[in-house]
Request: fold
Amino acid sequence: MSRIVSRFGAFTPARVVAGDHDLGGRRVIVTGGASGIGLETARALAGAGADVMLAVRDRAAGERAAVAINESIGDDRVVAGTLDLASLGSVAAFVDAWGDEPLDILINNAGVMATPQLYTADDLELQIGTNHFGHFLLTLGLTRALMNAAEDGRSARVVALSSIGHRRSDIHWDDIHYRSRPYDKWEAYGQSKTANALFAVGYNARFAEHGVTANAVMPGGIMTPLQRYLPKEEMIAMGWIDEEGKVAEGFKTPEQGASTSVWAAVGEELEGEGGLYLEDCAEALPWTPDNPRKGVMPYALDPEAADRLWAISEETTGAVL
Reply:
């Protein structure tokens, strides 16, 4: 099977990717849509006519973002809803509030990165608890709504935000939550991003035949509130910024970073296609040491690992469709 690509590139703005589409009547949820690439993803899709809900932990910030997007597109298409992915109870309440109303596109965009060793309300390691398990319960809970939106010739779509950070770690099956092994914030982040990619593989395998596809997305390097836990000195040491705070060449703007999410949500090339890892508006190539900031590791697309994670995720969240 040939690699799926688009006419867009790494630095194409999200509004350009969405621009040729009429999304009138489509309903979209974007988690973490109050800032960063989530906000720009929502803006691009709403600008193309979709009705968008920003599912956010800080409802006030979400309301402000919704007003700002609506003003920028000259229409009233964006609203905010309360969702704390670090609380399975909050996720369940959000799902109950949505109900079975058709949902065309779910973009699991929210996340945390390189946090101190912290745990969710349900005693899950914070990074995988928020980035994966919260989104797992959310997506399973909204699957009936997604299936209700699927039509002949047009699937409903799930977009799972992963990262090149997945190269830092496979899943540590014997101690996912760091109960006994030493905590490493970057390893924990990598594990959570591998889980996001494996979720897309597992979800697509189960629901593509019901009209719902899922793909993982690597948005690229972007300076957003995701870096909130990183001191300036660490970002300088990693070469992300210089001493004056100038962002390194190769980083994207938030709107450019949103482009692959938007393509995953609406691109014609991806109709009926799922279980993929996408970057720069194309299906990613395998990771190689020669180009370490791009590509996908084989363990992040392993169907057996996806099934193993799925079973653990069902047990952890209690989510069974």
Summary: The mean pLDDT is 93. The longest helix spans residues 185-207. The two ends are 31 Å apart (CA to CA).
